[in-house]
Amino acid sequence: MTDVAALLQRQSFVELPARSRCQHLLDDADQRELLGPFERLTSPWLPKQNIVTQSDDGVVIMRGTLGDTKVVIAAVEPAFQGGSMGEVGGAKIAGALACALADAENGDPVVPILLLETGGVRLQEANCGLAAIAEIHDMIVALREHGPVIGVITGPVGCFGGMSIAAGLCSELIVTREARLGLNGPQVIEQEAGVDEFDSRDRPMIWSLLGGEQRVATGLAEALVGDDVAAIRDLLARHVTASPKPLARTTDIARFEALLETVAPTERATARTTRDAFAQTTGAA
Amino acid sequence: MSQTQTPRQWNTRAAEKQRRLSTVAHLLNDKIVDRAAISDVLYGCIASGDRVIAEGNNQKQADFLSRALADLDPARVNDLHMIQPSVGRPEHLAVFEKGIAKKLDFAFSGTQSHRIGQLMMDGTIAVGAIHTYIELYARLFVDLIPKVVLTAAFKADRAGNLYTGPSTEDTPALVEAAAFSGGIVIAQANEIVEDVTGLDRVDIPGSWVDIVVEADQPFYIEPLFTRDPRHITDVQIFMAMMAIKGIYAEHGVASLNHGIGFNTAAIELLLPTYGEKLGLKGKIAKNWVLNPHPTLIPAIESGWVESVHCFGTELGMENYVAARGDVFFTGHDGSLRSNRAFCQLAGQYAADMFIGATLQIDPDGNSSTVTTSRVSGFGGAPNLGSDARGRRHATPAWADMADDNDPLARGRKLVVQMVETFQAGLVPTFVDELDAVTVAQKANLAVPPVMVYGDDTTHLLTEEGIAYLYRAESIEERRAMIAAVAGVTPLGRSADPGQTKRLREAGKVQWPADLGVSRAEATRSQLAASSIADLVDWSGGLYTPPPRFRSW
Predict the structure, then answer these.
(1) Residues 6 or more apart from B432 whose CB is under 8 A from it?
(2) What is the Cα Rg of chain B in Å?
């Protein structure tokens, strides 16, 4: 039986723009945006290519608390340039993480939360975007020594390219069923390997391999959550107070090499065979 | 007086039918013919010059039989006159390119709209007329009586009984026209069972059907009515709010038909949220003439919808519909019974309102989806989008359209065109002259393909506001009202601000602020469901969307 009241009550997180996502996750008191749109930090590269800039370059940084734990949220705006990471937006995230690292080293930890709705580097900004993404990776690894670094992927863009590595580096990764996580996106794989290898219009196949459920089942993400602001906030509130744990995902390289040995590239991977392979070698699923 | 005159034969049609069937009798086992013999059956049953219906409906396609027809030798069968509610398959046009058929009468061409336009203009297809659905069915009983009908069913038995179930659509009307006029009815079925006990129910009696063949694959069906809520824009939500407040609530619209666009999908998804907030539940949008739109699920689940009668079905909605028998028309087996002929009649005579979108509107309010590169036909829209002048029963919304000063005043159906002032690619919706006029000349059509005439249009809704066209007191005022909501299109820029102000004060044009609808409120968070996955949740898991709509 459908619970109409609950369905009407449910507020979609995916539907919210980046700034609202931050506002809904943080406690009401003491929210403040860092390097907000009135700072006019826009991309210097987009105008040269006749592309309209955005005053926050598609990245929102917000400080505040979540259930009394100090946090800083970096949210990528999926509606601006496909959530791509440019020089300025990337630097805003890297800078926020650097501040969090300094605070942690001074004994005043601020837990970083990354809302990763991004296709990866902004192609128009090429190496400048890539350099920023590398700095983000560096900061996440350093911050992990001090406490949780939490990534959230909800949809509809997914998380691809260099930022998928950032997601993989997070100590906790929270995903929805609609979230997709992969180094290359479906169109890129199809373009490089052919439609027989990967049909980017075969949606059930794409989600069965790259989707949130599969990523949790194979241990590449920690938790599955519904597209519901309250549920995501509750889950985050539990994760920000969690003590850091050893992160097999990015340190246990030998196990993943063993996993790769079991893969026969000539055979078509399915959700089932992938889960089985992970279960045998990494203990996931 | 001649002594040699022989008495007239009064049963030549039946005799000719028996003659044709006798030539294929050796191929039949009961009414069943082997798939491999289908060409011989068609050669025996179809003669050059015949009127033939190849069942192409809005959704269901007798595609095995239409492929078999397209494979015939044009030296043996030619000059056919095809009659099709919908021309939806490539092979429907191949019969013309091969010279098997010459003339075409149809209502809708959907996916083939570009190619059919080219073939009309180069003379390969001689089009009789582009009809509305019930107009075409009507002619099957008057001046387009078919000789052969090629139809499609889910299941058939050896006596020819057909189960067409949720996809009954046009079949009863098409089959009846041939079965009772000495025509031949040939049905393809996905599955053939021994006798009637193997059928879920009988939709078409076996005595109306002459020949049955098992198709090589299940008949093709197009999911035409699934709109992914993900693609609904804030502007569409804004317009939907104006529609609910300024039209549905204003006139008390209880019974209605919706178009298939994202505009009206937005309205369906706002009823349980915005509509609820306005206290309109139980007052508006209760009785629907509509395919089982997935976006209607939240309104049904939250108790807005009393009844839905369907033209056809929608892929993935089968289990949901079967589980909501109080709302939908279902058989004793539980599955939906659609019927396009009755549903179109319901939309014409019993619905308070039709609301839909279009591609072009001229300064007089005439509208069409035909553009120079695209001859899509209109299906049911010209019927649904017109006043039924034979109507004699009153409902509050219908009566609200009447002129109070006339003692013989009668109401009207509300016909609402809901359009953004610009289409994709910044093409203005408002044009000086409809492309339909040029197309009619190039394709030798007697009537320019107008979808909804301006004098039938009672309301025009754009993102700028609502023009209550039925309140216009002259043609000039009507034009001014249209221009007042035409935004920054050339027509909109020609509007006189002083006159627009007077029209707003007179309640003939209302801008969003006049209606108390705020742009800031028009966000996607208002939608009861914002994705296909949400719709599945709302259905309690009963809705199973086709794979192409899944994002999980």
Answers:
(1) B362, B363, B490, B491
(2) 25
Average pLDDT over chain A, rounded to an integer: 93
Structure tokens at B278: 């306005």
Tokens of B295: 């976006």
Three-class SS of residue B463?
A: coil
Question: Which among A1, A2, A14 is the top mutation candidate for probing chain B, defined by the most B β-carbons within 10 Å of its own β-carbon?
Answer: A2
Q: Which two tokens stand for residue A14?
A: 């995916």
Q: Tell me which residue in A11, A178, A202 faces B525 most closely, judged by beta carbons.
A: A11
pLDDT tens-digit series, residues B229-282: 999 999 999 999 999 999 999 999 999 999 999 999 999 999 999 999 999 999
Encoded amino acid at A119, one letter? G
Please calculate the CA angle B323-B329-B334 and round it to the nearest 5 degrees: 45
* Calpha distance B386→B413 (Å, rounded): 7
Q: CA A111, CA A27: separation in Å to the nearest integer?
A: 14
Report the DSSP pairing between strands A111-115 and A69-76: parallel
Residues in chain B whose beta carbon is closer than 8 A to a beta carbon of chain A?
Answer: 230, 272-273, 276, 298, 301-303, 523-525, 527-531, 533-534, 537-540, 547-552
**Tokens representing B231?**
């693609």
Residue with tokens 């570009």: B114
**CA–CA gap between residue B120 and residue B550 (Å, rounded):** 37
- Interatomic CA distance for residues B136 and B131, integer angstroms: 6
Nearest Cα of chain A lies from the Cα of B381 at a distance, in angstroms, of 32
Extract the tokens encoding B51: 């009127």
- Smallest CA-to-CA distance from B411 within B467, B460, B365, B470 is with B470
Write out chain A residues lying below 8 Å of B302, CB-based.
4, 8
B539: left (phi over 0), alpha (psi -120 to 50) or beta: alpha
Residues in chain B with CB shorter than 8 Å from the CB of A12 are 524-525, 530-531, 534
In which band, very low, low, confident or very high, does the pLDDT at B3 lie, cut at 50, 70 and 90?
A: low
Whether B344 has a pLDDT exceeding 80, the answer reads: yes
Alpha-carbon distance of B430 to B481, in angstroms, equals 13
C-alpha distances in Å from residue B456, one per residue of B255, B257, B385, B452: 18, 15, 7, 7
Position B4 pLDDT exceeds 90: no
Query: Rounded to whole angstroms, how far apart are CA atoms B252 and B515?
Result: 16
Q: Compute, in degrees rounded to 10, the torsion defined by CA atoms B464, B465, B468, B473.
A: -50
Number of neighbours of residue B7 by Cβ within 10 angstroms: 5
User: Considering the entire predicted model, what is its pTM?
Assistant: 0.91
CB A114 within 8 A of CB A100: no
Tell me the domains of chain A and their CATH numbers. Answer: 4-250 (3.90.226.10), 252-285 (no CATH)
Average pLDDT, chain B: 95
Query: A73 — phi, psi (to 5°)?
Result: -105, 130
Tell me which amino acid residue B143 is.
Answer: D
Rounded to whole angstroms, how far apart are CA atoms A268 and A197?
Answer: 8
pLDDT digits over B389-448, tens only?
999 999 999 999 998 788 888 999 999 999 999 998 899 999 999 999 998 888 888 899
CA distance B258 to B161: 34
B39-56 mean pLDDT: 97
Residue A73 three-state SS: strand
Q: Torsion angle, CA of A213/A216/A221/A224, rounded to 10 degrees?
A: 60
